[in-house]
Each structure stands twice: as structure tokens, then as C-alpha cells.
């Protein structure tokens, strides 16, 4: 398939992608960081596999999904496309081993049972410890009080490579404040695992604040993909 064919029907995609790449570069420069330290994960939730193919033609190497069945189906359909699949949504324990078959990284490790479910997968899997930045236990992520115990559990699992931490900034407070807390939680993880330096944070509306706080993996969707289709 030619680049032209892959991009058919996706007017403006290349321009939006370049705008975001430029925004990331500018935010890194403002923070005194090298843009090469960041990984752009384009979130393609609800979009068809053809969009991922188009993104790959534009040089995107990392895509994110937060629904297991959708991610699994896309990964199978796009087996010929060289992209890394990042699972960024809440993951049911019973689906964990299936997700590990296509995902290069799982960003939503938030409980002991999920670590147990992934501990003996048959290939090395990058994982991020998701931390809840609110006081609401119903939100995704582990409580800050669980950071050390979950980190140690992940480190004891031979199949799992603890990359760092992940969080979603709550809408009810300034993103910069939330990401500053996340940076502190990252330090706690690195006290146990010095190599776990990654911070998965920042979306379309707050990636500049995330970069200022040290984010390395940016999960950006609609600013690049455009409005999402209705859920299927």
C-alpha cells in the first residue's frame, strides 16, 4: 500500500501530527529538556485500524488503546505494521495474559492480582505502575500507600520490566500540581528500582504541564486523530 493510499480519507492528519510534535518540542525546550527524551503514544481508541496504518506511514511508532477487545482486534489486523502497542486502560485480570500477547507495554498496573496474572507470561513485558492522583478509590490507579509494595512485587516477577509510573491528572485541580505529585511518586519507585525512570503522563489538554514535570511517555489522542467516532 502506498503512502497516498494509506492516508486517503485522513485529510489534515499529517498536519495535526506535526503540530503536536512541534508543541512537544516547544514544551521540552521551555522545560530545558531534549524532545528526544519523550515518546509520543498516539491514542487511537474507537478509530479504525486504517488510521493506525496511516499514522505508521507518517512515522508514528507507538499507539495506545484502552479497550482490550478493540486493541486485540487491531493488533491482529495490523500484524504487518511495525508499531508498538501500549495498553493504557483499566485491565481485567482475566484478560491480562491475552493483552500481554500483543502489547509491548501495559501502563495500568494498579493491583497485586494483576501483577500475579502477568508474572509468568512467556515474554518480557514493560509495565508502568498506575497511581491514583485523587482521594477517590473509584478512580483508576493504586493508592500512593501501595507504591512500594506493588513495585517490589513487580520487581520480583521475572517477566515484568518496571519502566516507571503512570497517572491521569484529575480535572478538578491544576494539572501542574497533580503532575508534581506524580514526580514525587516516581522518586519513590526509583528508590527501589533506579532504572524505572519513565513517567507516562500528559494528554491532549495537559501534555505541556506533564513535560514540565518530567513526563517521558505522552498519551495524545484527539489533537492528532481528530474527534473520535462513536463507540462501537
In short:
This protein is α/β, with parallel strands linked by helices and 232 residues long. It has helices at 3-7, 13-30, 49-57, 68-77, 96-102, 112-118, 147-155, 175-192, 207-212, 222-225; strands at 39-43, 62-65, 84-87, 105-109, 125-130, 160-166, 198-200, 217-220.
CATH architecture: Alpha-Beta Barrel
CATH class: Alpha Beta
Share in helix: 40-55%
Q: Give the low-pLDDT segments.
A: none
Rg computed from alpha carbons, rounded to a whole number of angstroms: 17 Å
Order of strands across the biggest sheet?
7-6-5-4-3-2-1-8
Beta-strand content: 15-25%
Helix/strand/pairing category = alpha/beta
Largest sheet: 8 strands, parallel
- Give average pLDDT, whole number: 94
Order of helices and strands: HHEHEHEHEHEHEHEHEH
Q: What is the total tally of β strands?
A: 8
How does the overall form come out from the CA principal axes? globular
- Tell me the number of helical segments per DSSP (H or I, 4 or more residues long): 10
Quaternary: single chain
Examine the coordinates and then state which fold CATH places here, giving the name of the CATH topology: TIM Barrel
Q: What would you give as the CATH superfamily? A: Alanine racemase
Question: Helices and strands in order, then pairings?
Answer:
Layout: H1 3-7, H2 13-30, E1 39-43, H3 49-57, E2 62-65, H4 68-77, E3 84-87, H5 96-102, E4 105-109, H6 112-118, E5 125-130, H7 147-155, E6 160-166, H8 175-192, E7 198-200, H9 207-212, E8 217-220, H10 222-225
Helix pairs in contact: 7-8
